[in-house]
Every structure is written in C-alpha cells, then in structure tokens.
Amino acid sequence: MPGLTISEKILARASHAEVVRPGQIIDGEVDLLYMHEMLAMALLPFNEIGTTAVWDPNKIVVTLDHWVPPPTPEIAKMHQTIRDFCHKQGIQRFHDVGDHGIVHQLIAERGYAQPGELIIGSDSHTNMVGAVGAFAAGIGATDTAAVMASGRLWLRVPETLRVDIRGTLSERTTAKDVILKVIGTTGDDGARYAAVEFTGSTVKGFPMNERFVLCNMTTEMGAKVGLIEADQVTKQYLAHAGRPFHPIASDEDAAFSKTFSFEVDGMGPQVACPSNPANLKPVEDVEGTKIDVAFLGSCTNARIEDLRIAAGLLKGERVARGVRFQITPASQIIYRQALKEGLIEIFMDAGATFTSSTCGPCFGGHLGTLAGDEVCISSTNRNYPGRMGSPQAQVYLASPWTVTASAIHGEITDPRKV
Amino acid sequence: MAGFVNPGQGHEVYCSSSGSCLRMQRQFRGRVWTFGDDISTDHIIAGKYLGTTDPNVFAAHAFEAVDPAWAKSVQVGDLIVAGDNFGCGSSREQAPIALKTLGVSAILANSFARIFFRNSINLGLPVLECPGLRRKVNAGDVIEVDMAEGEVRLSDGGVSRFNALPPNVLEILEAGGLVAKIRAERAPHRT
Predict the structure, then answer these.
(1) How close does chain B come to A362, measured CA to CA in Å?
(2) pLDDT of residue A1
C-alpha cells in the first residue's frame, strides 16, 4: 500500500481512521470554522435545523469583510444580525468592523490556522490558508449551518495533485505570475475536486506572503484545497501565536494522482486576460493595452509586501491621467503597518486612492466597481464576466508589480521596463 | 435501513434511517436551456445583488450577465444543460438558490465545480453529471430525466446516462436537502 499525502493524513486524523484513500467519504471533525457575511445566509438553515447553540464557540472565527463599511441600510442590518448572533453564542473571536480583515488574511496573520488542522471556511478562497500546511476548504451556506450545529462535515477524500516548481524567476516576477502560469496550463478546472500540493525549490524559497498567493488561486484550478508542507518559514510566521507547531509531510511513497513540473528559470510576468483566469498571456503579448482602472486588493495580493512593491514604484511618480488606481489592503493590521511605514502618503502623493480593507471591489460589490466600457488590471483572482461590475467590463489579472507599473503608464506595462 | 417504498406517479416515499418519510420527485420532464463551459457563479448571480438574504432578488437577476431577459423567460420545471465545470468560482449559495427559486428542476452538465455541486444537493436541487449530453441537445428541446433509471431521454428518442450519485449524496437529495435530512435524523424515532 502506498503512503499518504498531507491531505490524506489530515483527513485520517480528523475522522479517527488509520488510513484514508482518495474517493472515500469521511465524516470529519472540524478544528476551525470561519465565516464572513455568509453567516447571515447560513442562519436561515441553522435555525431551520432546530439547534439553538453552535457546537463550540471557541472553534469559530467570524469577521465582516465583503461589505465594510456597510454600503446600504440592508447590509448594516445584516451586520447587526451577525454581531448579535456572535454575542449571543459566545463567539469570542468575532472581529467587528474596525478590527476586521478579509477573512483568509485575518485567519493567517492572527495565527488561527496551524499545520495539520481541518479548517472549513464559508468562502471559496479558504484554500489560501492551506499554505500553512492545513487542509482548508470552502463551503456554502447550508454546509456552514450544518458545521455550526455539529462541528462535522462529510468530505470526499481528494486525490492529490503535485505541482513541482523549480528555478529562479526573472526580476519583478512573483508567485502570482507562477500561479497564473499554472492555471493557464492546467485550465480553470484542471484540479477539480483535487488537493494541490506545491513542492520544489521555488516554492520552498518563497516567503509566506507568496505561498498564500499560490494556495489562494488553487480555487481557480477547481481544487478543494491547496497545501504546502510546513517548514521553518511557516514556523517563524506562526511563532507569534504561541501555539504548538506540528508540521505534517507527505510520505515518500505517497500516491500522487498526477505531477505537474514547472521549470520557471527566467520566467517573466504573466497576465490572465478577459474573461477567464486560465486565459494566459505573457505580459509582452498584452503590453500597450490601455487601462482605465488599476486595482491592488483582495485576499490574493494586498498584503504589506504587495503594498511595499506598489509604494516602491509609485514614489516620485504619478498615476497616469484618466486612470484611477485604488489600493485596498487585505486587513486592518496591514493598513496600520502601511500607515507606520509611510506608504499611504506615497500612494496619495501619486494620486492613488487608499481605502479601508474589504472584498468589495474584487467581487463587484461596492467601493469601486467597473463600468461597461472600462478596462481594469487587477491583483485579484477572478475575471469572469461581471465579476468586478458591468458584465461588459474587461479585467486583466496580474501581479502587484504589473498592476502598479500599468497604473503609472496608463497601459499594461512590463514592470521590468520601468 | 434507509430506502424507498411505494413507488408510483414519478414520486416515491423516502424513509430515512430515523424512520421519518419524505417525498422527492423522481422524474423531470422539461424544456432545456443550454449553457457552455466554465459558467461561474458570477455569471449566475452577480456580486452586486448579494447584499440581501431575499431569494427573490437572486432569482430576479439570475444569468443577467449572460441574458438580461433570462429570469423572466425561464419557467417552472425547465432544465439546464451545460458543458464543463458548471458553477465554478465563488462559494455563493445564492447561485443555486436563484435557480431553484425560479423553478429549475435539475441541472445536467459534463461536470460541476465542487462547492456549487454541494450547495445544490444541500438545497435539494438535482445536479447530474452527464458527459457528452451538451452536444446532443439544443435550447428548447424537451427532455426527460429519470432519477431511478439514471437516464435522460432526449426529444429525438435518444437516451443518455448520467453518472450515479454517491450514496451519501443521493441520501441528502432524497431527503429533500441537507436541512430536511438533519431534521429527519434528529426527529424522535417512529414505529
């Protein structure tokens, strides 16, 4: 019998089994459930189930991220409902407006996720959190209600697909360019139902902020989870949480359903063109495309390291006339850090707009949406029709380097040439 | 043991292991709406309409990005036939809620994205993997889905088979959705 992959080991532990195999259905005990405003949608089935109390308030984290601050009275009311529920249920880790962040970033930066845990989130980009070596999968509202009530979730044990990345990237080329390349190669359903485990020298050399980008966009491959074996980089990142650290590795003889090998030596910036994240082109092929909007935000690429890249390019420069460049940090913690480092002043001097942390623009919800004839370059994760506003708007996905360079020049620009 | 009793009239009475009995529709005959590959939940219901919990709002704007008139044209009992990776993208359950609220009775696709698949089953909306069906049907065809036989009968007399649902998934669907299943299991045993 072959050995086990990281995700198989975690699911075996969570279902009290010695061994689990792909295709098997398990009933998993959830270590952490986290939610954003989907909690309001989950309350309808939760109440219908007939439970009055959550299974364990200490295993639940809630924040508000999609509509912060609330743009309509109805959403303000939705936030009130969530606030009241968390208070009544004794959910201590409720991060209200003011202490908020895009939920995946908040979970990561506060050390709420540890290697080996079974983590369930009410959002498709929960995959991001797997970068600490956890099994982190997204679900919808009814499943969320069931987990809130029982602390358990049925899961099909996924096949593990290995993505091995080796080589040294060209300058101003990042994990975002790598994952766009991977998605462009496998397609936006290339890992449907599978666990994606990243390995290889390039991945091991990435700091945590870059590892989060890789796992975040395994969602755009259709994956159930994205994982990276926890190591010293992970340990250092999570040290402030002061929790026990037990990394898990795939066995040497583990069965991977498939291995994709990427040799990225010298690879330059990549861009996903309208209107599918797998519609890949190297930046050279789309250089000169006029833009109206540049957006640096979302759980994918709005960490402090991304903001530093933008500030580095913007210092002493101006955003091109007629272009609106919006920067929305992924959390309040990042906002404060940007303030301390003087980045916000650089953004403002350059004519960019800096906002409070929210998912708003990424999903076309509020705080910066696109008109039908607008072309946008964005550091986010999806560009399906209507994703960021009008269904006619054109969205290109790229790294913080490419987004910022393009904002300065008013057209898609290779960041290595500025 | 859970199982079916009293077949007939396209319905069967389903009795869960806890002893409570529910009904689910076993056959669907309906008009087809066709869609292509990689239809995301952004296509099905745009983010700008999610600031509410009212299912009628989601229904009113379903597929607006593809065809603004669609929500007004679709009728109760209609079926969706799509290509690969239907329902990819956001975890928003508002997408299958919109389609169910409009009365779509089942979705058949070459393949489904995982969260959309779970969400639909949890709502009691049948989602059936039927590889190759998409190129055999045209918009407006009337087809028949037989859950018991695992087959789709086409308007030209042809028959396609869909992949059997895993037993635990079928059990949720047969109970009428996840909430109904949990409620039935929690209800006191009846003799």
Answers:
(1) 9
(2) 86
Nearest alpha-carbon partner for A361 in A353, A372, A352, A370: A370
- Residue A95 inside a domain? The answer is yes
DSSP for A145-181 reads HHHHHHSEEEEEPPPEEEEEEES-PPTT--HHHHHHH
**B50 contacts in chain A (CB < 8 Å):** 66, 363, 365
Question: Cβ contact (<8 Å) for A49 and B113?
Answer: no
Q: Measured between CB atoms, which of A25, A139, A364 is closest to B46? A: A364
The H-assigned helical ranges of A90-229 are 103-109, 141-150, 175-186, 201-205, 208-216
Domain count, chain A: 2
Contact check, Cβ <8 Å, B91/A123: yes
The answer on A309 and A181 residing in a single domain is: no
Please report whether residue A23 resides in a domain: yes
| Residue contact B113–A222, C-beta within 8 A | yes
Q: Give the pLDDT score at A56.
A: 98
Chain A CA closest to residue B49: A365
Give this complex's ipTM: 0.96
Q: How far apart are CA A213 and CA A395, in angstroms?
A: 19
Give the residue numbers spanning the domain of B32.
27-166
Nearest Cα neighbor of A277 from A362, A356, A350, A380 is A380
Cα-based distances in Å from A259 to A68, B71, B76: 40, 43, 45
Separation in Å, CA of B182 to nearest CA in chain A: 7
ω into residue A275 within 30 of 0, thus cis? yes
For every one of its 191 residues, what pLDDT tens digit does chain B have, with 9 covering 90 and above?
333 333 333 344 444 444 444 456 789 999 999 999 999 999 999 999 999 999 999 999 999 999 999 999 999 999 999 999 999 999 999 999 999 999 999 999 999 999 999 999 999 999 999 999 999 999 999 999 998 899 999 999 999 999 999 999 999 999 999 999 999 998 876 54
Residues A240 and A176 in one domain: yes
Tokens, residue B28: 């669907």
Q: Using CB atoms, pick whichever of A40, A189, A387 lies closest to residue B111.
A: A189
> Up-side HSE of residue A23: CA atoms within 13 Å toward CB?
2
Does the N-terminal peptide bond of residue B166 adopt cis geometry, omega within 30 degrees of 0? no
Q: Which of B43, B48, B113 has the CB atom closest to A385's CB atom?
A: B43
Residue ranges of chain A with per-residue pLDDT less than 70: none
